């Protein structure tokens, strides 16, 4: 007996001792890789944007960016997209998540359908809606077929910039609602069923129940979704490119354009720096007003 | 008296349930149509004749099915090789990201060590950096290193993009594989590595597969870095972006549909892991 107990003891102890170095060894490759490919480039981009060709400190590239004729427009366009898209996405995603969470018969297939856009790229989404909103496309066909318009509307023309904005909002809402839905649904599943039943018992109607019971409990998920969507709104790129081309400048497009078409990596780095700074400001702002726990931040 | 009231009450309750159900399915179907109809329409556009693109009004029923547009797209110069490039880059991304990320995920799930929380936070916040600020300086570096316009360069960047997700997901997967099983295998005489390979790894495979598919999808869809880092060795999205200005509209439609195809299958395979991959990270 005593011998067996004595033999059994060393095992956990041995595992614990060999464990001291093991986790660091397992983590090291990832730490090195992420440092080299995320941390270093970020620092490099900031340096690149703040140096003249001869290497001296200079803000000339930021100066050039600010005086670019598309500067104000790309800022306001990006802001407009953010302000219009985020509320639409949150509303649609909340409706989807609440429906799925009611676990009606067949909810599995609906979850699959609602989740499909998760794997669709912004480029493909832009092209999908191009086929719908192009002048001889499906939207005009349907509207005219229903007798709602007399002649085709040029949604994507330079003369109708508010319509161009609308098409981009629709395409982005279509594509990126799915991720918001997944975040909200995951949050809903954490709310104990008892809460719903208790509210029912006290006679709360469905609408009231949702507003008074579910939404406050869902606050952490709503915050995560809001932060994620805002971060990505600053990076909107391919949807805009596919639908509107250059006529609707946004920040990420200017960064791409400076690099790929104007061959000026330093000005491109300045645009990228602007995107980063705006992202950080928004994240800090959200964290301040929500007081989100740190671990929830980057979800 | 009370029985009558009871029955009436039950009937009105039944009607209420019926109304609720109808309302619920109506909204669910409308939202499903909002998701599916655009996919149907791009498929319709991709599978009609090239000349049909310029017709107006359009037919919204698949009465004139034709593979002409898709055949033109696939036959266009550069398309097939860009598809091949996209697949190579996506597979390479899977290999690099899993080789680096799975050990880190395993370490997070099995060990308590100093700096664990800090590491986790760093991984989570690394998802936040805009791709533009990574791709532009890396393009400059890659020119010096001879990695510019090479598929390996794109693989390296895509791996960095998906690595944080892979670490978090594999940590979740290994956390759900019982540690006692591994320890039991060790007490039966296997080494730590043997216990991992024979016990933990097989149980973790489905979750790892989901992480791999996620890496594939992310790489397959990535536009900005691929466009910045390549010139001739284009991936499919980079090719489509570069040709947006000059290509005929039916080329774009076929390309758009082609890009969407994998998404339909991938989400089906991964539906169990939606919350691990895209939901709030653990």
Give the structural class of chain A: mainly alpha
Task: Report the β-strand fraction of chain B as a percent range.
Answer: under 5%
- Unreliable stretches of chain A (pLDDT < 50, length at least 5) are 1-17, 294-299
Shape of chain A: globular
Largest interface: A-B, 105 and 102 residues
Structural class of chain B: mainly alpha
The low-confidence runs of chain B, each spanning 5 or more residues with pLDDT under 50, are none
Could you tell me the mean pLDDT of chain A?
85
How large, in whole angstroms, is the Cα Rg of chain A? 25 Å
How far is it from the N-terminal to the C-terminal residue of chain B, by CA? 58 Å
Estimated helix fraction of chain B: over 70%
| Reported CATH architecture of the largest domain in chain A | Orthogonal Bundle
The major β-sheet of chain B equals: none
Q: For this structure, what is the CATH class of the largest domain in chain A?
A: Mainly Alpha
* CATH-defined architecture of the largest domain in chain B: Orthogonal Bundle
CATH topology of the largest domain in chain A: MetI-like fold
Helix-strand topology string of chain B: HHHHHHHHHHHH
Distance between the termini of chain A: 52 Å
């Amino acid at each position: 007996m005593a011998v067996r107990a004595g033999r059994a003891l060393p095992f956990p102890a041995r595992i614990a001792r060999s464990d001291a170095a093991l986790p660091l060894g397992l983590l090291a490759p990832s730490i090195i890789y992420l440092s080299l490919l995320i941390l270093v480039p970020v620092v490099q981009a900031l340096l690149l944007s703040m140096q003249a060709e001869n290497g001296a400190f200079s803000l000339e590239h930021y100066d050039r960016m600010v005086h670019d004729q598309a500067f104000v427009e790309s800022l306001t366009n990006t802001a407009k997209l953010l302000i219009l898209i985020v509320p639409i996405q949150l509303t649609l995603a909340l409706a989807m998540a609440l429906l799925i969470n009611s676990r009606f018969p067949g909810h599995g297939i609906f979850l699959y359908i609602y989740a499909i856009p998760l794997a669709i790229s912004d480029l493909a989404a832009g092209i999908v809606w191009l086929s719908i909103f192009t002048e001889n496309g499906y939207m005009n066909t349907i509207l005219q077929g229903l007798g709602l318009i007399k002649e085709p509307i040029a949604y994507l023309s330079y003369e109708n910039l508010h319509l161009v904005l609308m098409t981009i909002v629709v395409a982005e809402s279509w594509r990126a609602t799915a991720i918001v839905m997944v975040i909200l649904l995951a949050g809903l599943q954490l709310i104990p069923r008892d809460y719903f039943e208790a509210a029912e018992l006290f006679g709360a109607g469905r609408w009231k129940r949702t507003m008074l019971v579910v939404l406050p409990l869902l606050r952490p998920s709503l915050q995560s979704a809001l932060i994620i969507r805002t971060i990505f709104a600053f990076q909107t790129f391919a949807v805009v490119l596919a639908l509107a081309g250059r006529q609707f400048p946004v920040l990420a497009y200017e960064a791409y354009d400076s690099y790929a078409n104007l061959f000026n990596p330093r000005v491109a780095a300045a645009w990228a720096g602007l995107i980063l700074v705006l992202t950080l400001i928004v994240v800090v702002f959200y964290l301040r007003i929500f007081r989100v726990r740190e671990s929830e931040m980057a979800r | 008296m009370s029985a009558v009231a009871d029955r009436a009450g039950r009937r009105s309750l039944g009607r209420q349930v019926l109304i609720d159900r109808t309302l619920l399915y109506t909204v669910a179907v409308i939202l499903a149509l909002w998701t599916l109809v655009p996919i149907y329409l791009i498929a319709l556009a991709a599978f009609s004749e090239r000349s049909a693109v310029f017709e107006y009004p359009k037919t919204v029923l698949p009465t004139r099915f034709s593979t002409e547009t898709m055949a033109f797209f696939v036959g266009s110069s550069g398309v097939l090789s860009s598809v091949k490039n996209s697949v190579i880059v996506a597979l390479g991304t899977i290999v690099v990201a899993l080789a680096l990320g799975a050990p880190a995920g395993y370490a997070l799930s099995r060990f308590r060590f100093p700096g664990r929380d800090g590491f986790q936070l760093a991984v989570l916040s690394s998802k936040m950096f805009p791709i533009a600020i990574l791709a532009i300086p890396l393009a400059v570096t890659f020119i010096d290193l001879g990695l510019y316009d090479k598929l390996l360069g794109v693989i390296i960047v895509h791996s960095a993009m998906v690595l944080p997700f892979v670490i978090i997901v594999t940590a979740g997967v290994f956390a759900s594989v019982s540690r006692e099983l591994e320890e039991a295998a060790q007490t039966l005489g296997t080494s730590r590595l043997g216990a991992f390979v024979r016990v933990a790894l097989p149980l973790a495979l489905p979750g790892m597969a989901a992480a791999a598919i996620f890496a594939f999808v992310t790489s397959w869809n990535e536009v900005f870095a691929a466009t910045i880092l390549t010139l001739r060795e284009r991936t499919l999205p980079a090719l489509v972006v570069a040709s947006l200005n000059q290509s005929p509209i039916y080329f774009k439609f076929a390309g758009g549909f082609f890009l969407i195809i994998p998404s339909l299958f991938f989400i089906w395979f991964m539906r169990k892991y939606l919350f691990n991959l895209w939901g709030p990270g653990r």
